[in-house]
Amino acid sequence: MKEDRQDKFKISNDLLDAMLVGVKTQEDLWGKEGIITQINKVLLERILNAEMDFHLNYSDEGCV
């Protein structure tokens, strides 16, 4: 059976709840130090690192 793309990348409610602990205001969510900003930063860093690894055939040990 073909896995639905939505199910493959689904984020659990438990994970979302854990990430949102302490979020009380819009600033906590969307602000300069908010959770959305932090998530975007981490995701973009991972994406860029993956692109570098793929295109340059690079790993932590150096070029392969």
Q: Could you provide a short overview of the structure?
A:
This protein has 64 residues and is mainly alpha-helical. It is built from 4 helices and 2 strands; from the N terminus they run ααααββ.
What does this structure look like?
- The chain is built from four helices and two strands.
- With 64 residues, it is mainly alpha-helical.
- The chain has a domain of 38 residues.
- The protein has a two-stranded antiparallel ribbon with strand order 1-2.
- The longest helix is centred in the C-terminal third of the chain and has 22 residues.
- The protein is flat, with a radius of gyration of 17 Å.
- Rg from C-alpha positions? 17 Å
Number of helices: 4
State the major sheet.
2 strands, antiparallel
The helix fraction, in percent, is 55-70%
**Counted beta strands:** 2
- Distance from first to last alpha carbon: 37 Å
The parts where pLDDT drops under 50 for at least 5 residues are none
Beta-strand percentage range: 5-15%
Give the SSE string.
HHHHEE
Principal-axes shape call: flat
Structural class: mainly alpha
Mean pLDDT, all residues: 85
What oligomeric state do these chains adopt? single chain
The side-by-side strand order for the widest beta sheet comes to: 1-2
